[in-house]
Automatic annotation (TrEMBL):
Protein's UniProt name: magnesium chelatase
EC number per UniProt: 6.6.1.1
GO biological process, one term: photosynthesis
PANTHER family: MAGNESIUM-CHELATASE SUBUNIT CHLH, CHLOROPLASTIC
Pfam families for the chain: DUF3479
Domain Magnesium chelatase subunit H N-terminal: 1-115
Reaction it catalyzes: protoporphyrin IX + Mg(2+) + ATP + H2O = Mg-protoporphyrin IX + ADP + phosphate + 3 H(+)
Membership in a protein family: Belongs to the Mg-chelatase subunit H family.
Gene Ontology molecular-function annotations: ATP binding; magnesium chelatase activity
Pathway connected to this protein: Porphyrin-containing compound metabolism
UniProt source species: Craspedostauros australis
Record keywords: ATP-binding, Chlorophyll biosynthesis, Ligase, Nucleotide-binding, Photosynthesis
Length: 151
């Protein structure tokens, strides 16, 4: 049932996937469908699940590997002040806007969308979740994007 739902979806959103058995099931289902999904948003979860993220050209496929800027930032913050993964993500959320101006505009826009999505998700109110879905839908989901043109 989960597999069928993901295969039929335009967007996958997951969060707080920290149980290994659940992480493996999510990866087994989402990874094969990832390219056909318009967006994959995974908020604080195990690194192997976070690697599924895809918002336009923004991904976290290198998270937890030595060449990942995000991973390096998280490790550095943890070493400096013993902060948790969630605290590291919040610090990244505050720091990323300063870095975005140095990225090519398309990559910056996609990274900004991911971080805005995370902020909406953390807000958790019905209005924030509606804003999250509207933003991702109008920018990345073909049928929604087409319906929004000219409005």
């Amino acid at each position: 049932q989960f597999k069928k739902a993901v295969e039929e979806a335009n967007v996958f959103i997951g969060s707080l996937i920290f149980v290994q058995e659940l992480a493996e099931k999510v990866i087994d289902v989402v990874k094969p469908a990832r390219e056909s999904l318009d967006a994959v948003l995974v908020f604080p979860s195990m690194p192997e699940v976070m690697r599924l993220n895809k918002v336009g050209s923004f991904t976290m496929k290198n998270l937890g590997q030595s060449k990942s800027v995000v991973s390096d930032f998280m490790k550095k913050k943890k070493q400096e002040d013993g902060s948790s993964f969630e605290e590291g993500m919040l610090k990244l959320l505050r720091t990323l806007p300063k870095v975005l101006k140095f990225l090519p505009s398309d990559k910056a826009a996609d990274a900004r969308t991911f971080m805005m999505s995370f902020q909406y998700w953390l807000g958790g109110s019905p209005e924030n979740l509606q804003s999250l879905l509207t933003m991702v839908g109008q920018d990345y989901v073909g049928p929604v994007k087409a319906a929004m043109e000219g409005k």
